[in-house]
Amino acid sequence: MPLPTTFYTAQQVKQGEVQAAKARGLEMFSLMERAGQGVFTIALAQYPSSQHWLVCCGGGNNGGDGYIAARLAKAMGHQVTVWQVGNPEKLKGDALTAYYHWLDQGGDVYPIDDHVPRDVDLIIDGLLGTGLSGPVREPISDLIDTINNSGKPVVAIDIPSGLSSNTGSVLGKAIKAQHTISFIGLKQGLVTGQARNYVGKLHFAGLGVSENFDEQNTPTLKAIEPRFIRQCLKPRQPCAHKGHHGKAALIGGNRGMGGAMMLCAQACTRIGSGLTAALVHSDNMTAMLTVAPEVMTGSWEVENLKQRTEWCNVIGLGPGLGRGKDGRAIFEQVQSIDKPKVLDADALFFLAENPNHDDKRIITPHPAEAARLLGASVELVETDRFKAIHSLHEKYGGVIVLKGAGTLIYDGSQTYVCLAGNPGMATGGMGDVLTGIITALLAQGVPLCEAARAGVLVHSQAADKDAELKGERGLLASDLLPHLRSLVNY
């Protein structure tokens, strides 16, 4: 079953689940029982040959879910060891009820230990829930180390313990799970930033109330759905000609950095820009013409720059531009042009030095570039990517693409996330390809935010296709180019 495409804050889910249960006439303990059943079902399906489960319970409702999963596993004949942080008699509400049901079935509860028993072959993480806001403290921090160092597979309840459900950042330490099952409404922190290192495969259980919850709550984050590309790019008319599909001017490719513009220009043409021009340092013209003869290549001298920026309907600026006086002069000449623009790489360096607001612009920073644009640290950006992207929009306007694991897109009203992509994309030139893709979509008349969303998705899907064929390690930016054409045709 595909995951939902909408995400919420932890506060929304905590408050909303009560109203959703009420709308369905359910007691909250019934939801806990369903959640525990969901954990048991996913764990058994993923590890059908497991025999000895270690269920780690904390002091909140995640611990209650753990007790229910433990009870079901025991009833199925599994050996189950339950570790409880603190005194289980101090549990409250539904979690306490779940604990007593476990005891009624003859279950035992043990204090946490500093090593996982050798014969345990599956760990259930029910230590900390979505309400965690500060750093993980002892003894749970030590227990997280014990679990992570055990080499045993982990199924996390709702969220890996120690991961922020709102930001995806690690609050000191976090469980590295192979599977995570979340309930009722997916939390926005599960799909961006550091979360990709800890969540493993994400599963969802609506517990019979998710439809009511969705009706009652507005998502803070939406995934870019695969069908979105088809919605953006309509079939071409039989009598169409190249002039109908846009004129893109790409500017960059300084001495020694011509490859960036070659990647950018090839991506732009493969996505379907009707006419593409590239302005580069004169040293790179021959190479550009050899690699991409379909691209009208010229030097970036002042007259050529003026002619092409008047001719085009969209500008892509930055790949290989350089940070010297030539790059600065070009940036200053181009940034005030009243046309849609995509800025990346060295163009963002100059933008950080001369901040301005432009609602016809897409900027595509990675975390280090975002930090420079905000005058902050990379750590601060990655601690709360949602806050960072909102701050970038407030300062620079337009559409912001904050790259990284779980790339975010924000247009001032709605935040989107890309669920595609893989670690092989962490290599030089990927951003240059993305700039070309988005510029081509803008050239074809796709609106700003839609072009950013579709471009990010196509870019990631192309990388996933190649990684599926040949693996993630050694994936090159140029490996994406052969896949682009098929992804924008249907």
Structure description:
This protein has 2 domains: 6-219, 3-Layer(aba) Sandwich (Rossmann fold), CATH 3.40.50.10260; 228-487, UDP-N-acetylmuramoyl-L-alanine:D-glutamate ligase (3-Layer(aba) Sandwich), CATH 3.40.1190.20. The chain is 41% helix and 15% strand. The chain has helices at 10-23, 28-46, 61-75, 93-104, 140-148, 210-216, 228-232, 258-271, 285-291, 302-311, 325-334, 346-353, 367-374, 378-383, 385-396, 430-443, 448-470, 481-487; strands at residues 6-7, 52-57, 79-84, 110-111, 122-126, 154-157, 179-183, 201-205, 221-223, 247-251, 275-280, 296-299, 314-317, 341-343, 361-363, 399-402, 408-410, 415-417. Strand 2, helix 3 and strand 3 (79-84) form a beta-alpha-beta unit. The protein is elongated, with a radius of gyration of 26 Å. The mean pLDDT is 96.
- The low-pLDDT segments are none
Helical content class: 40-55%
Instruction: Sketch the major β-sheet.
Output: 11 strands, mixed
**What percent strand?**
5-15%
Counting H and I runs of at least 4 residues, what is the number of helices?
18
The beta-strand count equals 18
The top-level CATH class of the largest domain is: Alpha Beta
Strand order of the largest sheet: 1-9-18-17-16-15-14-13-10-11-12
In the CATH hierarchy, the architecture of the largest domain is 3-Layer(aba) Sandwich
Q: Mean pLDDT, rounded to whole units?
A: 96
Q: Could you please say which CATH topology of the largest domain applies here?
A: UDP-N-acetylmuramoyl-L-alanine:D-glutamate ligase
Domain unit count: 2
Shape: elongated
CATH superfamily of the largest domain: Ribokinase
The radius of gyration computed from the alpha-carbon positions, rounded to a whole number of angstroms, is: 26 Å
> What structural class do you assign from the helix and strand content?
alpha/beta
Distance between the termini: 24 Å
Keywords: ATP-binding, Isomerase, Lyase, Metal-binding, Multifunctional enzyme, NAD, NADP, Nucleotide-binding, Potassium
Binding site for AMP: 403-407, 431
Catalytic activity: (6R)-NADHX = (6S)-NADHX; (6S)-NADHX + ADP = AMP + phosphate + NADH + H(+); (6S)-NADPHX + ADP = AMP + phosphate + NADPH + H(+); (6R)-NADPHX = (6S)-NADPHX
GO molecular function, one term: NAD(P)HX epimerase activity
